[in-house]
Design a protein that fits this description.
Strands 3, 4, 5, 6, 7 and 8 form a six-stranded antiparallel sheet that branches. Strands 1-2 form a two-stranded antiparallel ribbon. It has helices at 2-32, 188-200, 223-227, 231-234; strands at residues 36-42, 57-63, 116-121, 137-145, 151-165, 181-186, 202-208, 221-222, 265-272, 275-282. Helices cover 19% and strands 27% of the residues. The chain is of the alpha+beta class. Among the domains are: 36-108, Antifreeze-like/N-acetylneuraminic acid synthase C-terminal domain (Type Iii Antifreeze Protein Isoform Hplc 12, Alpha-Beta Complex); 111-216. It contains four helices and ten strands.
Length: 283
């Protein structure tokens, strides 16, 4: 009786194990049969403006169900194309990351159609101590004089894209560099304002958050704004046009006193016998 029960339990165990093996095998076979497709990816890190050549691309297997929109399946499809934005190694090359057909490479291929690139001279302070990198957005501030000749600092352009620093269009946030020139992407109107600003005063770049799209309304900063509320400000002369108390100066003419006329005197000679004397008298 005991042997029969043991045999039954053994048979049930074998049956359960066989079912488990069947389902595990079926699951593994399905995983191995996932459909893949060839996708062109970057072989190494690629800088903006780089022409697509066999040295910078390769083919990789990609799950067919998740192939990115705009991806390429053959390297021949990318002949004479230029990368418009930086790529990481293994990143798929998409149509949205390529310059328009006919671009010849270099910085000009990175410029958005309808915009221009303008380079301005900077120093280590103006360039935000080397932390201004390609792909960053900056505001541009000019320090000059207003119509009355008073010093003023004013932000004249906002959210301007930095295309290159010095002669490099690559972006490496771990290696800030102190440079002497920054190239920015602007509309023709913005390019005109920037060219005028650098001719009438000194420029400063103000680094801003990549996600900050808020427009700023500012009247600029003047000397009086810096001294507002201080003892120095209270000692400043009154502003032009302010009314001042009128001081009246009265001139008084004092007539000098005339001296009294001096009395005239005369002399008379008196002779008495042998004595002669003179007597004075006043008229």
């Amino acid at each position: 009786m005991r042997n029969t029960r043991a045999l039954i339990m053994l048979g049930i165990s074998i049956l359960v194990a066989a079912v488990a093996v069947y389902f595990a095998s079926d699951w593994l076979s399905k995983q191995g049969d996932i459909a893949t497709a060839k996708v062109v990816v970057a072989k190494t890190e690629v800088a903006p403006g780089t022409p697509v050549t066999p040295e910078v691309i390769s083919l990789a297997d990609w799950p067919r169900a998740s192939v990115p929109k705009g991806a390429f399946s053959e390297a021949a499809q990318l002949k004479d194309r230029v990368i418009s934005t930086g790529l990481s190694a293994g990143e798929p090359i998409l149509e949205s990351k390529l310059a328009p057909v006919g671009s010849k490479g270099g910085l000009s291929a990175v410029i958005t159609p309808g915009k221009r690139a303008l380079t301005v001279k900077v120093n280590e302070i103006v360039g935000v101590a080397g932390f201004t990198l390609p792909g960053n957005f900056v505001d541009i501030m000019v320090n000059t004089q207003d119509d009355r000749g008073n010093p003023i600092s004013k932000i004249v352009l906002e959210k301007i894209l930095v295309l290159a620093v010095a002669q490099e269009a690559e972006r490496d946030p771990t290696k800030p560099k102190v440079v002497n020139a920054v190239t920015m992407e602007l509309t023709p109107e913005e390019a005109e304002k920037l060219d005028l600003a650098r001719s009438i005063g000194s420029l400063s770049l103000v680094l801003r958050n990549q996600l900050d799209s808020e427009d700023l309304t500012s009247g600029g900063a003047r000397k009086k704004d810096l001294l507002a509320g201080s003892d120095i400000a209270s000692q400043q002369p009154a502003a032009a046009g302010a009314t001042q108390p009128k001081v009246v100066v009265k001139r008084i003419y004092v007539r000098p006193k005339t001296a009294a006329p001096k009395a005239e005197t005369g002399k008379i000679e008196v002779i008495k016998g042998l004595t002669r004397t003179e007597v004075e008298f006043k008229e």
